[in-house]
Design goal:
This protein is of the alpha/beta class and about 250 residues long. It has 8 helices and 7 strands; from the N terminus they run βαβαβαβαβαβαααβ. Helices cover about 45% and strands about 15% of the residues. α4 runs parallel beside α5.
Length: about 250
């Protein structure tokens, strides 16, 4: 098992990419804490994963909730090797001037500020251990942005770049920081990203932009997280890995 003996904290682990990351981590031998606003959903994934997986209900935009999840992981498992900052949100695809200030604030709080808060909570723990892996879920939207999601694109551009900067600053502490940039995926946010109903015709338009001819699946992202969280990637840091079927070529 590729993550045997490792302890991980996954945000947004109650559904979508996050749920599959949790399940894959447990299958590979990791002990996992899930932090999600949807406490019931997180508990269902924890039950399905088994292996002593812990569900914590909490808001990734609140420092107290993040601190509580980190403490739960350390108190329960004695250490925290991997953090996957997966929680994310988007407003519905629409012209930039139609995005409200509240929508703007929310997307930056969940997609960007949450990583700031998590970093403040987890880096002191990892520095004491002299090791750690932080994996941020960015997006191809931060590499090749398209109209209709301008402010969301900006958040993912921030995630992609901050991952590189964090990697350089934290390398002397033995902490590796990498980023995964998925293409549009089959998750609950699909129609928001598309801005149109998920019909075969509308989906075909999006698939036509992806050379490998399909959207990202949760397993695609989870497999990348397993690799970046494991020892096989020990010399990788500051990488923004497109999991995109060739979309950003």
């Amino acid at each position: 098992m590729r993550l045997k003996g490792k302890t991980a904290l996954v945000t947004g682990g109650a559904s979508g990419f996050g749920a599959e990351i949790v399940l894959s981590y447990v299958r590979e031998g990791a002990k996992v804490v899930i932090l999600d606003l949807n406490g019931n959903g997180a508990q269902k994934i924890a039950d399905a994963a088994g292996g002593g997986t812990i569900a914590v209900a909490g808001d990734v935009t609140k420092q107290s909730d993040i601190d509580a999840a980190v403490k739960r992981a350390v108190d329960t498992f004695g250490k925290l090797d991997i953090v996957v900052n997966n929680a994310g949100w988007t407003f519905r695809n629409k012209p930039m001037l139609e995005v409200s200030e509240a929508e703007f604030d929310k997307v930056f709080a969940i997609n960007v500020k949450s990583i700031f808060l998590m970093t403040n909570a987890v880096v002191p723990v990892m520095r004491k251990q002299k090791s750690g892996r932080i994996i941020n879920i960015g997006s191809t939207a931060g590499l090749r942005p398209r109209p209709g999601l301008t402010w969301y694109n900006a958040t993912k551009g921030a995630v992609n770049l901050m991952s590189k900067s964090m990697a350089v600053e934290l390398a002397p502490d033995g902490i590796r920081v990498n980023c995964i940039a998925p293409v549009i995926g089959e998750t609950a946010l699909l129609e928001s990203f598309m801005g149109v109903p998920d019909t075969p015709e509308n989906r075909a338009k999006f698939l036509a932009t992806i050379p490998l001819g399909r959207m990202a699946k949760p397993g695609d992202v989870a497999n990348a997280c397993v690799y970046l969280g494991g020892d096989e990637s020990e010399f990788l840091t500051g990488v923004v890995l497109p999991v995109d079927g060739g979309r950003t070529i």
